[in-house]
Amino acid sequence: MVITDPRMAAGAPPILAGKPAVLVTVRGGSYQPGTPREGWDHATGWMRRILADVWRLDLKVVQAEFTLVGVNPALDQFKDVACQLREQAEEQARHHGRELAVTVPSTIAA
Questions:
Q1: By CB distance 3.0 to 4.6 Å, which of 5, 19, 36, 68 could disulfide with 72?
Q2: Mapping DSSP to helix (H, G, I), strand (E, B) and coil, where does residue 62 land?
Q3: Confidence (pLDDT) at 6
């Protein structure tokens, strides 16, 4: 719905330019380079294009992968890497959350 607002249309002055934002994505498997599904993530690139390039948000991205490990038996072999990737994603989310806690009050006033 936001993208239909004329104030957010391509070519309009970006009213959100420079505002901090965090995009969190969750994938059941893995689309990282070198994996069999590399290049299958068609959503994240599109979201980055809108949020960072069109709306010019100060965008940070957190990607959690292999979230279906433990649910889908075909992915059980990736238990260790899934645990490591989850820890990394959670740490990134905490880091970005702390950054937002510091910057958001000042950007609201702007």
A1: 68
A2: strand
A3: 83
